[in-house]
Write a structure and sequence with these properties.
Helices cover 42% and strands 15% of the residues. With 367 residues, it is α/β, with parallel strands linked by helices. It folds into three domains: 133 residues, 3-Layer(aba) Sandwich (Rossmann fold); 118 residues, NadA-like (Rossmann fold, 3-Layer(aba) Sandwich); 80 residues, NadA-like (Rossmann fold), CATH 3.40.50. The strands form four sheets. Strands 7-6-8-11-9-10 form a six-stranded mixed sheet, with helices on both faces. Helix 3 links the parallel strand 2 and strand 3. Helix 2 packs parallel to helix 14. The chain binds 1,3-dihydroxyacetonephosphate (13P) and iron/sulfur cluster. The site of 1,3-dihydroxyacetonephosphate has 11 residues, from loops. This is Quinolinate synthase.
């Protein structure tokens, strides 16, 4: 079976939802929300499409969504508008009787897929062989539950883009070295901001099973997993130079999943929440080139007509997997619930959830 056929098999949505008018889909979504009331909770990530985010009970960045899931003990159904790793996190942090639903199972994350447990176990064996007991693993929430469980098992914590600095600082109070998975860019940007030089960082390549480093290996403080976000890697220093040339005075703000070079050249860098708040609090007439996902940039544009807002990349960067959650899938998931059928439930095995929760709880206690 080829990849397209496999993806098709993950999508059980009946054909009729595909041809429904937007207005009808919206009316149906409103009606189920009204019927289910507080039995239903809909969290939505900032990168979600407008057609879906309009129905969210709460929107947020990864940290806020994890905190909301941990707090909510009343909703029977949590229809998660985001990607698979976020729904897994919600399942881990909510009660057994609460069902977490991802409207389209194809909403994965290419970054999370860049580290599997087998690769991580092999890397850990090689790294502990080389550095002994000096390493603490940290994992970006953009990862599978299995990797979070690995990190929980080894005393580490999860991080998000809004708390990475705090958690890396905490990690250095525990051990001499940090093993940061799976986003090398967030790891590098965070460690650099804390005073770790590039020479003190090494990159673990899971395919070559090798450690690459520009400095002396014994001085390495941070080991970065060679993973990245396929959306944010599309922002480049060239684009920044182009903006500086053609639109002098424009502010450049980027997400820390962008490369170190891009973050260094930008004026500001931070999580989706930070980007939203910085632009919201900026004076009218201010001008912004934004290096993050396109649904969020478009939303910022029309929410702030008094400011000039453009994408740093003129060809824009959608997250294709975030965009999988569309109105037809969302309404299908809701209507199934109102008929008592739970479709696309995300369930993390108890033993994995238990250890992953240790890593998440450490982060939530520190955040
Ligand atoms: P934040 O919302 O934490 O900034 O994360 C961005 C992201 O890539 C989510 O997939
Ligand atoms: Fe994954 Fe990047 Fe999409 Fe976030 S934006 S879900 S990290 S691919």
């Amino acid at each position: 079976m080829n990849v397209l056929e496999q993806l098709k098999r993950l999508d059980d949505m009946p054909e009729r939802y595909k041809t429904m008018e937007k207005s009808e889909l919206e009316a149906r979504a409103r009606s189920v929300k009204e019927r289910l009331g507080r039995r239903l909770f809909i969290p939505g990530h900032h990168y979600q499409k407008d057609e879906v985010i309009q129905f969210a009970d709460a929107t947020g960045d990864s940290l806020q969504l994890a905190q909301l899931a941990a707090k909510n003990d009343e909703a029977e159904y949590i229809v998660f508008c985001g990607v698979h790793f976020m729904a897994e996190t919600a399942d881990i942090l909510t009660g057994e009787e609460q069902a977490v639903i991802l409207p389209d199972l194809r909403a994965g994350c290419s970054m999370a897929d860049m580290a599997d447990l087998f690769q991580v176990e092999r890397a850990w064996a090689a790294l502990t062989d080389r550095f002994g007991e000096t390493i603490l693993p940290l994992v970006y929430v953009n990862s599978t539950a299995a990797i979070k469980a690995f990190v929980g098992r080894h005393g580490g914590a999860t991080v998000t883009s809004s708390n990475a600095k705090n958690i890396v600082q905490w990690a250095f109070s525990q051990k001499e070295r940090v093993f940061f998975l799976p986003d090398q860019h967030l790891g590098r940007n965070t460690a650099y901001a804390l005073g770790v030089s590039l020479d003190e960082m090494a990159v673990w390549d899971p395919h070559e099973e090798s450690l690459q480093c520009t400095g002396a290996i014994d001085n390495v403080k941070v080991i970065l997993w060679k993973g990245h976000c396929s959306v944010h890697e599309n922002f480049t220093v060239r684009q920044i130079e182009q903006i500086r040339r053609t639109k002098p005075g424009m502010n450049i703000i980027v997400h820390p999943e962008c490369s170190w070079e891009v973050v260094q050249q930008a004026d500001y860098a931070g999580s989706t929440k930070y980007i939203i708040e910085t632009i919201r609090n900026a004076p009218p007439g201010s001008r912004w080139a934004v290096g993050t996902e396109m649904n969020l940039v478009n939303r910022l544009k029309y929410e702030h007509p008094d400011k000039e807002i453009i994408s740093l990349n003129p060809y824009m960067c959608p997250c294709l997997t975030m965009n999988r959650i569309d109105l037809p899938h969302f309404v299908w998931a809701l209507e199934s619930l109102s008929e008592g059928i739970v479709v696309n439930r995300i369930t993390v095995l108890n033993e994995v959830a238990f250890e992953a929760k240790r890593a998440l709880d450490r982060m939530l206690a520190l955040a």
